[in-house]
Amino acid sequence: MVRHVAAVLGHESARTIDRERGFVDLGMNSLTAVELRNRFAAEAGVRLPETTLYDYPTPLALARHLGTALGVDGDRAPEGIFAELERLEAAVAAAELDQAARTRLAKRLAAVQWRLESGGTAGTTTAALTQATDDEMFALIDQELGIN
Known about the structure:
The protein is mainly α. The protein is 66% helix and 0% strand. InterPro entries: ACP-like_sf, PKS_NRPS_Biosynth_Enz, PKS_PP-bd, PP-bd_ACP, Ppantetheine_attach_site.
């Protein structure tokens, strides 16, 4: 959501948007409000009411409302996680990564995904997985599957 606010206001990054500052104070007007609603409708497939920015006057309030409306449980998925994810997406989009950096980043993201899907916790397991070579990972998989 914040990246859409940044885009309609002409900011290069969502990081420049204060999530607790009012839309009007951020420079939103009726035309940019319509553009924001249209962008969100195109991405999420949900048409927002015309009064949305008045009913939820800050990006944070709107994000919380949309999370509830779309069935995202705020207790299971704290808003801060999604804010950090948006910042990460913006950073990746802006970064000029060589192949080695892209591979390293992909491994780290895969480790995060694995932890998320398995219900694992942060710790040394993730660090070990992100630093493992391909051969070490295949050996671990073989061991887990009982293939020797």
